[in-house]
Design brief:
Elements (H helix, E strand, L loop, with lengths): L12 H31 L3 H37 L3 H36 L4 H16 L2 H15 L4 H23 L9 H26 L10 H37 L3 H37 L3 H37 L3 H13 L4 H16 L3 H68 L1
């Protein structure tokens, strides 16, 4: 491999994290923009089409959680090999990861195409809306390969320490999707009017182009793809390692929307305004937390390379820097939202009740945003250190052992306000719990590394 490796095992940890995080933020914002553009244009078709698109989100998020799990597993393996200086192994792992992505794509496509009607009927879609859902999801499932393979490919690129290229690829996809959406949905110029099918097709075309770009970067620029077929033993070992990390990570990511669904169900007992207020608060939360989500993502390749180079102390320092930044960022956002919450909520809704309770949410929950950021950062580190079950248990305990019980208790004691305090307490406890678990794990790895040095 030519000089395409961004060495994350040397230099000050803080500036390296900044260099990785800024492009990651761009990538996250691009993903948000992708969905907003689709929602904007589909909304102009009518309420049934918009409802159909809304129904697809939870199903797509579940599938995307599995894909993200494979990406996390690939990043952990490849970055560790790069950090250890074993570039041939990294090349083998990248190629095998892409093969695993292909198999996952074909499996998801086959299952998805035959389960559209029962799955969305179970979710509550009526016959009229189901027709639109079928139009959209048939194309989505047929072309799911153009979602899975580029995501795994971009994970491999990030493993080298290059965070800019995946962000640029995502920006390119957003631009193509934004250009094609109106053309294919409304039939502008020579293009046919395809309605919701047009939205699915625009997404697929933009993703297909990212597939080509990702493979080009990996093969030509990074030299991380080999066409030499591995032995079955080598292939099985690589896939087992990715799945061992990726499956718990993917399932853990599914726990959040499931738990949030329960919280939403409790809020719905107060009325639609409460659910709407929670939705507004959650969207603002995601926007303000995007910096910390990007920071957490940047810790994946950083941890992997330093783990491979056995520089555990650098990982511990990076976690401490990230945790300190998360707390400071969270507090700054909390103070701003405490005073500006009502004005921000007014942007999203004209309902007085929705604005009032959105502002209530923003006056309570953001004070624990920093600890939520710590939780995200630590989970990434633990997964990359090949200990995904620890991260899975933390997520399981957080969602079902803390969040849901506190939401029920808060609701019974103080209504909606009590639920919001329950959420804030959940984020705080999750941050503390994950940080303690991470310190324990890194201390063990540091002792093990020092023992090996003594033996040598």
């Amino acid at each position: 491999m030519s000089a395409t490796k961004y060495n994350l095992t040397q230099g000050k940890e803080g500036p390296i994290l900044v260099r990785l995080t800024l492009p990651m933020m761009l990538g996250i914002i691009s993903m948000v923009a992708f969905n907003l553009i689709d929602t904007y244009y589909v909304g102009k078709l009518g309420k049934d089409e918009l409802a159909a698109l809304s129904y697809t989100f939870p199903v797509i998020m579940v599938i995307f959680s599995l894909v993200q799990g494979i990406g996390i597993g690939a990043t952990a393996l490849i970055s560790k090999s790069i950090g250890a200086g074993n570039l041939e192994k990294a090349r083998r792992e990248t190629s095998d990861s892409l093969m695993l992505g292909l198999i996952l794509a074909f499996t998801l496509s086959s299952i998805g195409l035959f389960t559209i009607e029962p799955v969305f009927t179970f979710l509550g879609a009526g016959p009229d809306v189901l027709l639109h859902i079928t139009d959209y999801m048939q194309i989505w499932f047929i072309t799911v390969i153009v979602l899975v393979v580029p995501f795994v490919g971009n994970s491999a690129i990030r493993a080298t320490g290059d965070a800019k290229t995946p962000a640029y690829i995502m920006l390119f996809a957003v631009a193509v999707n934004a250009a094609l959406d109106p053309l294919l949905i409304f039939g502008i110029g020579p293009f046919p009017e395809l309605g919701l099918k047009g939205a699915a097709l625009a997404t697929s075309i933009s993703r297909a182009l990212t597939l080509v770009l990702s493979l080009y970067i990996l093969y030509v620029k990074k030299s991380l793809i080999t066409f030499h077929l591995p032995s079955f033993t080598v292939l099985k070992g690589c896939w087992a390692s990715i799945i061992r990390i990726g499956l718990p990570s993917g399932v853990a990511r599914m726990l959040t929307p499931i738990a949030m669904g329960k919280v939403t169900a409790i809020l719905s007992s107060y009325g639609a305004f409460a659910v709407a207020a929670f939705g507004v608060g959650s969207r603002i939360e995601f926007l303000t937390m995007s910096v910390l989500f990007a920071l957490a993502a940047s810790l994946g390749p950083f941890t992997g390379q330093n783990f491979g180079a056995q520089r555990i102390g650098r990982i511990r320092k990076a976690v401490d820097i990230s945790a300190a930044f998360a707390v400071v960022w969270g507090l700054v956002m909390a103070v701003l939202l405490y005073f500006l919450g009502e004005k921000v909520a007014n942007i999203f809704s004209e309902s007085e009740d929705v604005v009032t309770y959105s502002a209530l949410y923003l006056s309570i929950v953001p004070f624990s945003f920093g600890f939520q950021g710590i939780n995200q950062c630590v989970n990434t580190v633990i997964n990359t250190l090949n200990k995904p079950m620890i991260a899975f248990v933390i997520s399981l305990v957080t969602m079902f052992g803390i969040m849901i019980p506190l939401a029920i208790l808060g609701s019974n004691m103080a209504g909606i306000k009590g639920m919001f305090y329950g959420l804030a307490t959940t984020y705080l406890l999750a941050g503390v719990l994950s940080y303690i678990a991470n310190r324990w794990l890194l201390a063990r790895l540091l002792r093990a590394t020092k023992s090996q040095e003594i033996v040598k």
